[in-house]
From TrEMBL:
Bilayer topology: Multi-pass membrane protein
Top-level lineage group: Bacteria
InterPro entries per record: LeuE-type
Organism lineage: Bacteria, Pseudomonadati, Pseudomonadota, Gammaproteobacteria, Oceanospirillales
Record's keyword annotation contains Transmembrane: yes
Cellular compartments annotated: Cell membrane
Protein name in UniProt: LysE family translocator
PANTHER family associated with the record: ARGININE EXPORTER PROTEIN ARGO, ARGININE EXPORTER PROTEIN ARGO-RELATED
Ranges in a coiled coil: none
Membrane-spanning parts: 42-62, 74-92, 112-134, 141-165, 177-198
Length: 199
């Protein structure tokens, strides 16, 4: 019963965190524009799967590693920042999909899963979600999976909006120059997330 009572406030928290800009949403927008919604779906589902694993792990003690070993947190920030810069470069230099080569591909499911463990926003979401809304009564494993699963169900339409927004922009962009400006802008926004990671 306590688990059900926690789902309402937890859902509001996840909506506010999932629909706001961050590395995942910026990359989904760029992917939606360049590859369309269908090809971006594995990336989107990978974000949800990665966050589910991360959030569940936090509830089961993974978050304590951050508290006991600050070097782990620092290492994740550096790794996450470097990977984000790599992705930003890939976005900024991507050829226009209708005018360049078509060999480019969006982030895969497993790449998106792995990125969540180096994504500080995902860690903040997981730590706050589990610290604030995980019921104390009942089986911790079941409660953790239930809360993490419900959180990702709520997050799905929120992040899907960003991929859909990108797809709409992709239909609107005309000519190689417009595509280059868009991709460079999205790459720069992705790279700018590093400021918040290391700040």
């Amino acid at each position: 019963m306590e688990t059900l009572a926690a789902l309402g406030p937890a859902a509001l928290f996840m909506i506010s965190m999932s629909i706001t800009p961050g590395p995942n949403n910026v990359m989904l927008t760029a992917s939606g524009a360049n590859y369309g919604f269908r090809r971006t779906l594995p990336h989107l589902l990978g974000i949800l799967g990665g966050c589910f694993l991360l959030f569940s792990g936090v509830a089961l003690g993974l978050g304590m590693i951050f508290e006991r070993f600050p070097l782990v947190q620092t290492s994740l920030r550096v790794i996450g920042s470097l990977y984000l810069l790599y992705l930003a470069w890939g976005i900024a230099t991507a050829p226009p999909p209708r005018f360049g080569d078509t060999q480019g591909r969006p982030l895969s499911f497993w790449q998106a899963v792995a990125f969540q463990f180096a994504n500080p926003k995902a860690w903040v979401m997981g730590l706050t979600l589990m610290a604030s809304f995980l019921p104390e009564d009942g089986n911790t494993l079941i409660n953790a999976f239930a809360l993490a699963g419900a959180a990702e169900l709520v997050a799905f339409p929120c992040i899907a909006l960003w991929a859909g927004f990108g797809m709409a922009i992709g239909h609107w962009l005309k000519g190689p120059r417009a595509w280059r400006v868009f991709n460079v802008t999205m790459g720069a926004l992705t790279a700018a997330c590093v400021i918040f990671i290391l700040g």
